[in-house]
Amino acid sequence: MINCQALKPIYMNPPPENQELDHRTELLLRTLRWLLRPLVRLLITHGITFPLLRKLLKGLYVEVALETFSQQDKPPTDSRLFVLTGIHRKDIKLLKKLDEEQQLQSFRNSTLGAEIIAHWLGSREFIHSDGSPRNLLRNPADGEAGFDALVASVNKDVRPPAVLEEWLRLGIVSLDPQGRISLNQQAFVPSTGFDEKAWFLGKHLHDHIAACAHNLQDLQPPMLERSVYYSRLTPQSVEQLNQYARQKGIELLQALNQQALASQQADQGKPEADQRFRFGLYWYHEALQDTPAQPTSEQDPS
After folding, report:
1. Candidates 1.10.3470, 2.40.30, 3.30.1150, 1.10.10; correct CATH number of 108-187?
2. What per-residue confidence (pLDDT) applies to 45?
3. pTM for the whole thing?
């Protein structure tokens, strides 16, 4: 997690609209405008209007300030929360009284599914010698590890038939005529199932932005945050590069998953085992807009 204790409000009170912003604040606002464009497009598509987003952000400002700006283990007072967030003290009192049940719930089913897939791709009994996932019977008679055993290795309280039924619906797995269950490795983002996609959207972008914020504050050591960018390419070239990136990316993720699972099992029970990590890959392409000054390639600074 990033250490937000190092963050300091640039203005003790929200600046008047006609007050000139300092250089860093202006740069961050420009970056934020670009960063939020696809998110705003997504919100409009799904009927989330600005008043609804404003209500969410107001509560989130108070929540984050309470979590990260405590002093000597004491939560900030309502007056300090007003200084930090610019939200009126009357609204702060109301927001602090909200029950936890009124907050957005985590997608536990999505977490469970991701963990089961990680075990399928990382445990020796569920993969071939080349690292590819084995096709699994539910309960094989020959002593092989099956699908039910896979689910139980993650959570014994979950019924494997329920997991299988949902994964078949989402296209994460398929059944062959012999009843073997095969993992669709192209379905790590399910073709259906809005809950799962929304869960991964929040988790992935949260950690990506947190890594960028960590580096922007010059906290040490810097976190890995790199990308490759090229333009002026034909659709055929983009598709070839896309397939190459997918192949190499999946190979890397599978190798890292196996090593991380082994480390997790080795670290089980150790008092210092209090760390988490996320490593991700992404790909995006679109037609160039009319921006002549746009570079044809970029190299992230080291």
Report:
1. 1.10.10
2. 80
3. 0.60
